[in-house]
């Protein structure tokens, strides 16, 4: 995962959202449109979210300490989770409340050209931000679908920006629809309905982000491709004859912990085993550069124990099951 790619997408989204937020609040001041107010708060919340992602990226680069020996890589997950909370509370819930109030107490939109003009400008600006996020994501996505990319990405920044920008574009279309219907019918209730729809959309996106970042916070294994590379790199067919069981864990988007019990010959000397372990660690880091922390424990392979199946408590046990995705 290219951290610079994620940063470019965040900065593009931050610049677009700040400009859009100012224009929406100006439009609200002149028109009284609740959709404009909800969208202005949405863009302001998005700007804060991008600032949180930048702060998380900066904090995650701190060196490991005795108290945090594996470093601070998961700071990026924590701040991404905070983004989902802000999007849910500040963006979604506020829009639902504002829309409900507008439906109860509708009033005619004044100076219609302000909200319409701002919405058109916002769609163009958000489109630019969304295009940047798509371009940066395509460099990492490979053959994965967009849903698979968002589900499997270990770095949270690009999925967050993608979902935020996608939600913002749909929200702008809903706001434009609500304002247009309110102008055509002369009934301000349509403006409120559009605002409620925006709120529901933001809440749904926030829930998706919360679920994905929660999974990252709990700790996810390496992807299937990386697991295969690690397994191939460990076994040399000479001293290291197989993998009894192995566990992987992302300490951060670009930091991977690997712990494995490896099978060696019963008559190998301690020096031969130590040399084989050092060589295996070197091969792993070459195959998967983000492998930062590696623990390899030698053991004598037992056919009887292996026959019991992939029991993580067996010592030694059989091969560990493949990670689920």
TrEMBL record:
Residue spans of biased composition, Basic and acidic residues class: 305-314
Keyword Membrane included in the entry's annotation: yes
This protein's record includes keyword Membrane: yes
Annotated region (Disordered), positions in chain: 305-325
Coiled coil: none
Signal peptide: none
Keywords, sorted A to Z: Membrane, Transmembrane, Transmembrane helix, Transport
One cellular component (GO) term of this entry: membrane
Membrane-crossing residue ranges in chain numbering: 6-30, 77-100, 112-134, 160-183, 189-210
Topology class, membrane: Multi-pass membrane protein
GO MF annotations in UniProt: monoatomic cation transmembrane transporter activity
Location(s), subcellular: Membrane
GO biological processes: zinc ion transport
A Pfam short name: Cation_efflux
Sequence ranges assigned to domain Cation efflux protein transmembrane in this UniProt record: 11-218
Name of this protein: Cation diffusion facilitator family transporter
Lineage: Bacteria, Bacillati, Actinomycetota, Actinomycetes, Kitasatosporales
């Amino acid at each position: 995962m290219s951290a610079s790619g994620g940063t470019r997408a965040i900065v593009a989204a931050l610049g677009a959202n700040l400009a859009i937020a100012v224009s929406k609040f100006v439009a609200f001041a002149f028109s009284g449109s609740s959709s404009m107010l909800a969208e202005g708060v949405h863009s302001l919340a998005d700007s804060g979210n991008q600032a949180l992602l930048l702060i998380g990226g900066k904090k995650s680069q701190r060196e490991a300490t005795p108290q945090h020996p594996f470093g601070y890589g998961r700071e990026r997950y924590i701040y991404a989770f905070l983004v989902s909370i802000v999007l849910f509370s500040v963006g979604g819930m506020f829009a639902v409340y504002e829309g409900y109030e507008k439906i109860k107490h509708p009033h005619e939109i004044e100076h219609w050209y302000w909200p319409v003009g701002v919405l058109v400008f916002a769609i163009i600006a958000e489109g630019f931000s969304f295009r940047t996020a798509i371009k940066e994501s395509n460099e990492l996505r490979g053959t994965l679908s967009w849903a698979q990319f968002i589900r499997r990405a270990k770095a949270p920044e690009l999925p967050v920006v993608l979902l935020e920008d996608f939600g913002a574009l749909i929200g702008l279309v809903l706001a434009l629809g609500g304002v247009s219907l309110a102008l055509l019918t002369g009934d301000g209730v349509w403006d409120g309905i559009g605002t409620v729809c925006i709120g529901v959309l933001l809440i749904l996106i926030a829930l998706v982000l919360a679920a994905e970042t929660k999974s990252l916070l709990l700790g996810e294994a390496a992807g299937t491709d990386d697991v295969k590379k690690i397994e191939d790199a460990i076994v040399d067919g000479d001293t290291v004859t197989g993998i009894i069981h192995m566990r992987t864990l992302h300490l951060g988007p670009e930091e991977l912990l690997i712990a494995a019990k490896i099978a060696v010959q019963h008559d190998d000397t301690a020096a031969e085993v130590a040399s084989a372990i050092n060589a295996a660690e070197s091969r792993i880091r070459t195959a998967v550069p983000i492998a930062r922390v590696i623990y390899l424990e030698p053991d004598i392979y037992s056919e009887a124990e292996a026959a019991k199946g992939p029991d993580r408590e067996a010592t030694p046990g059989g091969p560990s099951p493949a990670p689920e995705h």
